[in-house]
Amino acid sequence: MICSECQQRLSDYLDGHLSIGEGVRIEQHLMSCQICKVVHDDLAQIIKASRALPLHAPSPVLWQRIQAQITLEAEAKPQTSESWWGQLRNRQFHLTLSFPQLAAVAAAFVFVIASTIVLTQLSTRNLSSVTGGDPNSLGNIGRPLNVPVLPEDLERQVNEYTNLVNKRKESWDPKVREIFERNMAILDMSMDECQQQLRRNQTDQVAFDMLRMAYQKKLEILQDFAAIE
Amino acid sequence: MPDGAISELIQVTIEASNTVSDLELAAGAAAGDVRAFERLYELHHRRVYSLCLRMLGSAVEAEDLTQEVFLQVYRKIGSFRGESAFTTWLHRLTVNQVLMHFRKRGVKLEQTTEEGDFTNVVVVGSERPEAMPIVDRIALDKAISELPPGYRTVFVLHDVEGHEHEEIATMLGCSVGTSKSQLHKARMKLRQLLTKKV
Fold first, then answer.
1. Residue A218 near residue A184 (C-beta atoms within 8 A)
2. Helix, strand, or coil here: A204?
3. How far apart (Å, rounded) are the C-alpha atoms in residues B185 and B181?
4. Are residues A134 and A21 located together in one domain of the fold?
């Protein structure tokens, strides 16, 4: 082996990238060549020293520069007084949800909008038909025989998944948690309206159907979010 | 338990507790807590700055890029989900910023040599038969800053930061062979620079 060949392979030799045969050839050359041995030792010293290089510190004003830039960027963001539609349009969404989760969220929004329209119409109709519009009037006391009841299994499943998700959501990405909680709040508000409607008229089949659908939708969303580790 | 095992256990515990702390701070920063972000800066700015400094070879540019890295962290912290350690995520972000900076400046990292063919740095005859004296860290840092950008990048990523050639090749968009070749030339060039100075 000649010196140029040995020196070209010294880094591979020092990093352990050579075969046993090639390594032995290098070692044999190093034993007989003082020049290459010196180069080998120097490179080994450089490698060793590089792994222990100290950290350097930037000037102390760097944090102030960063802080000033952050403040500028925060001020440049749209103000919260902007309309909800403007905020929605300007918001940069990070797609952290899977397609089924996004579909569930979209379905929840559609459900909430539809139920709001139906319940608003029902509310107007029932208020005009119920005497005095008083929910505590004699006509609403006591449950008639045809009052519909939610399946126990559905309520139980919703409660179980709610407990499960509540335990897990602390470890989620804050944006995912925010999306989840916002949708749950909207869904709960809609369910609350259905229940208020049912308190006014226990036999209101439409309000009951909407409530049952809301429970089912909530269960689907909870199941999707429960899958997030 | 042997002393070595105890110190290793302590180190693992310290690293684990730091990871938890980083995760908590990252979550806080993502929620808009500037104090949490400031703490992340305090913990990691030296590492980011040192990496920038060694890859760029200029203190002014390293400060500018460190600022840009932490602004990127502030903007992207919401996408950090703790799948890897925060330090790994931050390191990758820093390397990407430096490489983007090189691209903007038109620095060609694949350029292998400034001084011609490799054979020029082969030591022959009795040029320097004696061993190089112990290299001090300041001299080594200075010599690294004098390397051509292509050599310096591979050397810093491999020998200082501990990346494998496969990772470097992926980061730089070159072959493993090119990475190995650049590294060897960088080491030989460093030896040349240090031999002159020591």
1. yes
2. coil
3. 6
4. no
Record: contact A63-B41, CB cut-off 8 A: yes
pLDDT exceeds cutoff 70 at A106: no
CATH topology for the B118-197 domain:
Arc Repressor Mutant, subunit A (1.10.10)
One-letter amino acid at B185 equals: K
Instruction: Please state the domain extents for chain B.
Output: 3-105, 118-197
What tens digit of pLDDT does each residue of B107-116 get?
766 554 444 4
pLDDT at residue B56, rounded to an integer? 92
pLDDT at A146: 55
Q: For B3-105, CATH number?
A: 1.10.1740.10
Chain A residue with the nearest C-alpha to that of B136: A49
Q: To 10 degrees, the CA torsion angle through B186, B188, B191, B195?
A: -130
How far apart are the CA of A73 and the nearest CA of chain B, in angstroms? 10
Write out chain A residues lying below 8 Å of B24, CB-based.
none
User: Residue B174, Cβ neighbours under 10 Å: how many?
Assistant: 18
- Residue A228 forms contact with B (CB below 8 Å): no
- Single pTM value for the model: 0.57
**Count of domains forming chain A:** 2
The one-letter code for the residue type at A95 is L
- Mutate which of A46, A170, A179 to test chain B, going by most B C-beta atoms within 10 A? A46
Instruction: Decide if B56 touches A, using CB distance below 8 A.
Output: no
The answer to whether residues A201 and A130 touch, using CB atoms and an 8 Å cutoff, is yes
pLDDT at B12: 47
Query: Does the CB of B5 have a partner CB in chain A at under 8 Å?
Result: no
- B152 against A81, higher pLDDT: B152
pLDDT in tens, B129-173: 556 677 788 889 999 999 998 899 999 999 999 999 999 998 888
